Amino acid sequence: MIPVIKKRIYLGLLAATMLLFAGALGYIWLTFFQQDGGWLRYITIVAVVAVLACLIVIGLGFAGIVLSLVSEKNITFLNKPMNFTFSLLYPVVMWLGKVFKITQDKIQRSFVEVNNQLVKAKQGKLTPDRLLILLPHCLQERECPNRITTNTENCTRCGRCPVGDLLPLSERYGVHLRIATGGTLAREAVKKLRPRAIVAVACERDLTSGILDCIPLPVLGVTNDRPHGPCFNTYVDPDAVEKAILFFIQGGEGNVFHVSAN
Ligand code: SF4
Predict the structure, then answer these.
(1) Contacts of 177 (CB under 8 A, 6+ apart)
(2) Which of 44, 108, 198, 234 is the most exposed place for a label (fewest CB within 10 A)?
(3) What is the reported pLDDT for 33?
(4) Is pLDDT at 149 greater than 60 in this prediction?
(5) CA of 196 to the centre of ligand 1 (A)
(6) What is the domain partition of the chain in residue ranges?
(7) DSSP label at 6?
(8) With a 6 A CB cut-off, is 155 part of the ligand 1 pocket?
């Protein structure tokens, strides 16, 4: 089945946003252009041209996103409008979601799904040292006294939290791994290590803001489980992270093989 089904919330809202722009265009035209001549007519023409230009770019971006999802191939020449549509319209999409009473969580989950599918449509293979794994601090067992954000070697891999299973992955594949307490530390790691791609583990909200921050850098998002509520002893399946690492360093999903953590 075409992998668009799970993504329909975000795509639907994106389409609605385009209609909103088209409506704004029609409104400006009908309200002001038909009025008396003079300076108002010139301002209207400028406004109509600006909105029309935005609408064309958004339309191209939307077409690129849908084509890429359906064909599972990267539409290279539409990448710029796709990034523009993806990032710039996000606040409008969230606002429209509120109007339609769709929860923020649902939209953000859909956004991450769409993003991951678009990243997977890109071909290519990275050397491991250009890949960064970003983990949230909330994966660490709350009672653990070891300071792993400053140095991951402080983790004794006692088995009480998934961090102990994730660190061997970075060693096995030779990829960078950082544990961040928030967006600032994550941004610092990206700035310092200058990766070509990122595998990020976080909740939907943090993944969304991280993905938007990093555009055009490809980010594969892996959502963490929150059995004890947000930001507290969260969990991620190490296999899911391993699969994302292998996607980047082996150049696609077809080559994924399983290697369990020590
Ligand atoms: S695996 Fe053990 S030592 Fe490592 S962070 Fe988790 S609780 Fe702490």
Answers:
(1) 132, 133, 135, 152, 166, 167, 169, 170
(2) 44
(3) 66
(4) yes
(5) 29
(6) 5-120, 128-255
(7) G
(8) yes
